């Protein structure tokens, strides 16, 4: 996975920076015309350039990954539903996707995360909350300005470069989303020691763990699959019950 470096994404990181920076290009896929208009108007005042699509089929057909910095995607759409849209976008787009859902149960959240979404917000939407989530995603996906020239970690057949955002397993590059790589980075930095869910959750969401959210579990599951770890009896990224996860140093061949 190669993370697209885009200076547009830096623009929305703080209100103070917004006045003199390039707008962030946001695609909003939402069939509620009134809500879409409200969100668009609010975000445009926060230095986002917002494009709105009201139909899943149309959104996929017209999508240009190179022209979008972040996607906000409703799950309940006419035509192609939001989960299918998410799957289609992930074929060409590695940037952040935030899901909007009107359902309180976590099954839609889990399915969205399984299909490649990075975060979710439950309706009814509070615009300041949505803005905070968007800024948090952008902060986590922009390149670190103080990153070292190289930051490579090698574990047998696995090579992880935290600076270039690349993971290579047995000579083949692993196709990871930005959030999957971020999770791998947390584990790699703590290789050989147990990392708590609190630590991981805070790193990938930027907020404290509430004890209920399954974001970490879903991403661990996806990461295991992509790193050829046994889903039934994982030996590379082990679950330490009651404590967290362990990245096993000598399990990579």
Task: Please outline what is shown here.
The chain is an alpha/beta fold. The chain is 34% helix and 20% strand.
Structure description:
With 253 residues, this protein is an alpha/beta fold. It has 2 domains: 7-141, Rossmann fold, CATH 3.40.50; 152-247, Orthogonal Bundle (Arc Repressor Mutant, subunit A), CATH 1.10.10. The protein has 9 helices and 12 strands. The strands form 3 sheets. A 5-stranded parallel sheet has the order 2-1-3-4-5, sandwiched between helices. The model is unreliable at 1-7, 14-20 and 144-150 (pLDDT under 50).
Query: Distance between termini?
Result: 21 Å
Question: What is the CATH third-level topology name of the largest domain?
Answer: Rossmann fold
Q: How much is the radius of gyration in Å?
A: 18 Å
Q: What is the CATH class name of the largest domain?
A: Alpha Beta
| pLDDT < 50 runs, ≥5 residues | 1-7, 14-20, 144-150
CATH architecture of the largest domain: 3-Layer(aba) Sandwich
How many DSSP-defined strands?
Answer: 12
**Count, helices:** 9
Helix/strand order, N-terminal first:
HEHEHEHEHEHEEEEHEHHEE
Q: What strand order characterises the main sheet?
A: 2-1-3-4-5
Strand content: 15-25%
Percent helix among the residues?
25-40%
Essential attributes:
2 domains, Arc Repressor Mutant, subunit A, 253 residues, five-stranded parallel beta sheet
